[in-house]
């Protein structure tokens, strides 16, 4: 155990564990961040935390398998009584608004309110934000009972921040669909604004937003971390983003939001790179990707390139 | 680009691009067909068209992964507002009536009517046609708002054509189940009759029916194309048929119905053969099958045996 | 064909086909058991029986693929009219109470009553027994229309037996979740009591309970069979337990309950061991596991260690 324990409750300037290091943040602060990322990777493997998911039917199997491969355990539920009961033994939850069914319109707001009441941490994946009246109603309702982390592509992050009135619609962003039509760079300010809003709502004032793209972006509302790497093949299997959201919840069960979001994104990028070298196409890629999630050393994950600016 | 472009709107005798070649169709016309098949395979990889699916929960992941491996993109939806919104950015849709839920009884007819109104192209997979009162009601309702392509096994094609009053029940066909109990040959006339009916309902008078079996059969209502090959292992993984339906919708986003149905069936047969040689059982077969969908050259797909009679 | 045919309707002491062998049961009786296990494995491959499933959305694809890899065929349904229609052509059914939707509260009791009325055999997987009001109501309702086999982890078996009033709550067992918190040994008496209750309700007085754990346990209410082996990697993919339940239904379509439960558990343990030696992590493990289900010889399955006490 190091001083960088996930139970650290100090100021999160640059995620620095040492208060005296607060002030202008620079690349040196990354040493602390990296230590806490490695610890989160280790903690999940040692404690096998349960992270429950309410997620879409397309990729639900990969979400569970990725959580298991990262070292956690998985449970998927849709009925509010089931979800709320299971949340009492779950370290964090993951909610993904793909493949909506009619009863979700009432169930999801009810579940979010229950999480807010109990202070339960959760990750939101606003899949296809902007498409469909029902999805818009559900996503709008979360403004009053917000998640701890939002993970999405650039278009989804911009659509959610716009929907919640945190940024003005600039007329340049189109409905998100499930593939991003916006660049990660276009989402920097919306992501920071969204993370700040989430932190203001969080019991411990900590939150994060992760934007997936060619270069992933993670922010706690103050600093922006860019994570290069990964593999283009991750866009050729369905569910790379969803399973990243699920594994983010797994890490959130043992670490603070910024560290959880960074650890999950780094783990996925490294695993994608390894799987690409071992596979001949998307079918074998997925198998090797899960293997790599299982096999990567905490230091390999934490030692990856992080571009802080 | 060749004259065999998918945007060609000429007569579809044998799928010939050249009107002067109309008249008695023969094997020579296959040259034109093959060119357009290769073009469809290329177009999907270059344009990555979105094909949306409303499909069963068993194989929904494989449908999406097969569409991605063929070069397209995927989105799955079930709520009418979600499906109809997404259809506006989707090149074609795929509807599969497996694993019905109660609300589908109203949702699916509503969706089919919306597609008809907007002229949106779609592929129907009448899984288990003949089983269950609800499925029968849903499939019957599609007669008034028919798909562009129907893809199924012989029993399903016969059951659907009978249900729509296009052929007389001969008393020899049993309810379809999910495994065909009828031979592809028994489905030749029902498939032609069904395709003719679909073409009469289509805005551009083009439609197709694909029958999966040991030898696949594709027809536009006039000519019947038999596609030998494939692998018996395709019946030992769940969803080979469903994912073929999904990939047919992917090709339908860039090509006319006959070419889309031929291209998808040929791609699947070739991929099945390659995967069989590389695998030791159904688990590794599925991974290698997706790899082969990704790796096959357009000329390999288009150059396959097509038996025209 | 041997005397140990699955159509044998004699006394099931130790599963002995020979009445004269009844009395104190010992390891020698295992010879008969093994013969019938091998026969069940062969019969499934020769007859490709359909076993229908009503199962959770997380692992529904693996359940179907495992049933196909074992040699059977699969169909998944949720609407009562669909399930009851398909049951007429299905050798046995599998019901798994994970990922509940609202309409299941009425649908599942209705389906169980229909199975009871028609004498249709089915396997229950009481996933997460004890969690959620709706699940508890559904599982309680099955007491009046019980399954032929129950398969679960130790916590789920104890929770179900307690819920049905067959054993007194001892206050030591916690709600099951999807991961067992109880040891298989703690479930021996609850499993025997449960199996005895099931047998009393069965048309032919035969039933079984299978408890999955480090050492699996199968009982017909009289004798307890312990099955060592398997692979720890089976807990690192989602759905090993669910797919075991599905394959148990596949075997139940051709064999009596005790033999079906033993054959499925032994097949899974042997396949897990083979897959572990061939894989580098959970992704490749799953592919090799399905391959092994497909490739294992009946004698390899039946010749495995069985600890009778």
UniProtKB/TrEMBL annotation, chains A, B, C:
A GO molecular function held by the record: ATP binding
Sequence positions that bind substrate: 76, 239
Swiss-Prot/TrEMBL keywords: ATP-binding, Kinase, Magnesium, Metal-binding, Nucleotide-binding, Thiamine biosynthesis, Transferase
Cofactor: Mg(2+)
This protein's record includes keyword Amino-acid biosynthesis: no
Entry's Gene Ontology BP terms: thiamine biosynthetic process; thiamine diphosphate biosynthetic process
Binding sites annotated in the UniProt record for ATP: 151, 212
Pathway connected to this protein: Cofactor biosynthesis; thiamine diphosphate biosynthesis; 4-methyl-5-(2-phosphoethyl)-thiazole from 5-(2-hydroxyethyl)-4-methylthiazole: step 1/1
Catalytic activity reported: 5-(2-hydroxyethyl)-4-methylthiazole + ATP = 4-methyl-5-(2-phosphooxyethyl)-thiazole + ADP + H(+)
EC number from the UniProt entry: 2.7.1.50
Name the record gives this protein: Hydroxyethylthiazole kinase
Source species of the chain: Bifidobacterium aerophilum
